[in-house]
Every structure is written in structure tokens, then in C-alpha cells.
Specification:
single chain; 63 residues; mainly alpha; 2 helices; 70% helix
């Protein structure tokens, strides 16, 4: 993963999250849950992409 793609992805995710939080009418609790889920997903994606979290490749969901 190159640094440029990492920065571009973080900017796109940040802008999309800002747009959702600003323009979509949702309850405050739902917005906070959405924010936490997106932040956790992005952190896991960064760790997996940099190789710091290599154990996720062997995990499968379902049959």
C-alpha cells in the first residue's frame, strides 16, 4: 500500500463520513455508532494493509 493511496483513501472516507453526519437526518446515537464502526474498520484496514495485522488473512466467515 503506497502512502498516496492511504492518504487519498483517508480523505475520501473522512469526507463521506462528514457528508453523512452533516446532511443525513439520523438520531445522534445512530450517528455515533456509525462513526465508531467506520473508524474501527479504517484502523483495521490500515493495520492489515501495512502488514501489522497479518492474522486476518486466515479468517473466513461462513462455510
Amino acid at each position: 500500500m503506497s502512502l498516496v493511496s492511504l492518504v487519498v483513501t483517508l480523505i475520501v472516507v473522512g469526507v463521506l463520513l462528514w457528508l453523512v453526519n452533516t446532511y443525513l437526518p439520523m438520531d445522534r446515537k445512530i450517528k455515533s455508532i456509525l462513526n465508531v464502526v467506520v473508524v474501527i474498520f479504517v484502523i483495521l484496514w490500515i493495520l492489515n494493509g501495512t502488514g501489522l495485522l497479518g492474522g486476518l488473512n486466515g479468517i473466513t466467515v461462513g462455510g
